[in-house]
Amino acid sequence: MSFLRVFPFLVLCCSSLGIWVPEALSDNGFQGHQRKVGLIIGVGDYSHVPALSNPENDARDVGASLDRMGFELIVELNPDRAALLDSIAKFKNLVRNSDIAVLYYAGHSIQVDNQNFVIPTDALLRKPDDVDRFLLPISDLSSVMEEEAAVKIIILDACRDNPFLASATKIVSETGEGQTVGRGLAAFPEPLALERIRPEQAYGSVIAYAAAPGRTASDGVDDNSPYTAALLEHLEEPGLEIGQMFRKVASKVLIASNGQQRPEYLVRLTDEVYFRVPEPTRCDFLAAAPYNAIGVTGVDFERIAFRDAIPACEEALRSDPSHPRLLFNLGRSHDAAGNFKEAIAYYRESSALDYPAATSSLGVMHINGQGVPQDFIEGTRLLKIARSLGSRTAKISLSYSDFSVLFERNEFRQVQRKLKELGYYKGNLDGDFGQASERALEEFQMASRLRLSGLTLETLDQLELVEIIPNYELN
Question: Could you tell me if 89 and 155 are in contact, meaning their C-beta atoms sit under 8 angstroms apart?
Fold first, then answer.
């Protein structure tokens, strides 16, 4: 079957071939007019245990830094539980329709049954119901951002040696319910990325811990904790992407503590996000994709002037050889020039640095057999990784292109067989993909929560039939 029948569909899904976006959308970068908000909490002056010296300073200094960068803030210093609840209620209103929301907490925290709790100043743990009476789940704070903020950043400098640990352990043991209490913080569930956002808007989440889950962190002997001191050093650095910022912070704390304190972070963002947007390079003006993170218009794939873009991106990379966006731009320029092996190399470098667009493009190159042997299984794997990192182009590639236009009876027969094994198809395995087969496929897709777009990559992957896609060549 001619590839020309599938090619128009693939053009829409391939990040390396360009992606359709509504004409009505502005072509400004999404970070040009951001609304940034934050809830900053520092708790150190506890009523019933020795005070911590730094959380109030930490919260005040982080709040001042974010304020200088244009954040709308609620700063709560040494709140009791009632004040914390009041702050959450205010934050619910503040966070609505925000581009970036930051939750920063410094102070004592505790984990009970792998759930993290912040500890307000009036906390007193003597009997079982005191846990619900005084403590507040961190999830209550973070969930406020879930439905409203596009980019959610949670920073927890809350792993300090905890005088509440012994009393909490005693209370839990007396209940006889088999609950557990742990040092430090438990691994935090990743916030969900939003689906209902503007196509040009970044979204996703960052979760940063001052120390590894289950480990404690130092309160410090200076005006700030070691973690917050490192954070403040980089927070306002111009042009520093926040994923790179948290890597720098973690590295600085690790070195300063001689390996004793190991910060951890989880970054899941669809694109670069900055507190202070960088100065675009000539490479960006010539090769950045539309709806980029740095505020330039961007260039559609087919309009890349690769003879100018390639040397411009090579020049930009000389001063910053491991910059994921610039590596992607150079890969994109080589891709446009038809230098597929070079494009693959740069996409791989950028992908290794967790740049979703590069991973998506790399997956498309494997699907189309550009610069690498055609490999639908590897291409699908890469696209799934990119989708998990938040790439919209990967999501479109997986869920919109109907590969059945390439199928003959043998491939359709294998789809029928799989649907029959799963209990959706009752007819003959004749390779005639008529109404009964299509109805069975749609029932499977609805049950699996897949898009009803024919035999897409995600549907074939769910059916474990990606390998049946016939090879094709681009014209």
Answer: no
**By C-alpha distance, which of 278, 225, 273 is closest to 246?**
273
Q: Terminal CA-to-CA distance of the chain, rounded, Å? A: 14
The tokens of 464 are what?
């474990």
Whole-angstrom Cα distance, residue 293 to residue 72? 21
What's this model's pTM, rounded to 2 decimal places?
Answer: 0.68
* 421 pLDDT more than 90: yes
**How does strand 36-42 pair with strand 72-77?**
parallel
Give the tokens for residue 168.
Answer: 């909490």
Can you list the alpha helix ranges (DSSP code H) found in 102-225? 130-134, 138-146, 165-175
- Radius of gyration over every alpha carbon of the chain, rounded to an integer in angstroms: 26
All residues at 6 or more sequence positions from 404 whose CB lies less than 8 Å from its CB, including other chains = 411, 412, 433, 454, 455
Tell me the C-alpha to C-alpha distance, in Å, between residue 250 and each of 8, 59, 209, 246, 257.
45, 19, 9, 6, 11
Instruction: List the single range of 6-20, 186-200, 289-303, 361-375 with lowest mean pLDDT.
Output: 6-20
